[in-house]
Amino acid sequence: MKIQKLICLCGVFFYCGASGYARTFTNQAGKSMEADVVSVSGDKVKLKRADGKEYELPLSALSEADQAFLKEWKPAVPGDKPDPVPEAPTDPDLKPGGSFKLDFKDLVVDRKDTPASCQVRLSAGYDAAKPASLVVWLGGGDGGNSPSTGFLPEGNFVSAGLPYPKGANNPNQANMVGEYDDIWDYQRTMVDAILKKVPNLAKGLGVISGFSNGAHAIDGMLRVRSKKGEGVADYFKVFVLADGGGSYSASKGGYPSLKGKFAYVCWGEKSPNAGPSQLVAKDFRSRGAEHVASEMKDTGHAFAPAEVEKVKVWMEKTVVPVLFAKP
Q1: Per residue in 5-24, pLDDT tens?
Q2: Domain 99-323 maps to which CATH number in 3.40.50.1820, 3.40.50.150, 3.40.50.1760, 3.30.2270.10?
């Protein structure tokens, strides 16, 4: 029986055999399983899984590396022990509920005249052995570098607060962020550093969220192209905008295609951002995002606690099953 059929019947991955000599074998299609070598005879190999099942396969069905290994293979002598496998080095920062700070000395100071840095926090259920999602928070006003996680359900999340670079202002209103290509290039440097440090994060499966100026920044960054190539939509799958976006940023251009992505746009019924926020929700819809547009009743310029809870439920029921779906 060909190894392709074995994998289809028994699953792609198998745990190691009891002998301690189990090896991961890969077929020509790139699929793998773990098994012990029982014997090698001519152009045939007999493999044994931990459940006791044995299979005889042609050597040619396996990868070149496995074929080379089997040509040198010899039966184990009783009493021999396999060479110890060195443990992969672990990063002490990457533990459930832990946090760390990254500094960026080559970047300009932020809008608070503070050296560029970001704070990163791992969820209590963080598991380094499973895929995780990066959750970026962009604060209102002059921003900051502390993450906000109130809208996150339980899950394998790594949260970060990203600041805005000094000088990236809306020329028509200095207290609002602007020059979104500069903001994205600044924050992308931080995001790339986080992705490098936390290896189980995947680019393209992140969540970017923000309130007020944070929502303005997300909306604006979606409308511009990065000076370095890839844009915000290449890094993030989920967008949460609370009471912000539209107006000045709309003159920069339109969103890229957002098919397969998710958006939650909310605004205060009594907020001056209500109109622009509703236009932002329409933009997400027109570009193919699965979206929620929500008005916070009797609310001004705020991300109301009740709305935070609604976002949390939406994340848990709609977004998390997709973010952490098995391929």
Answers
A1: 444 433 333 333 334 457 88
A2: 3.40.50.1820
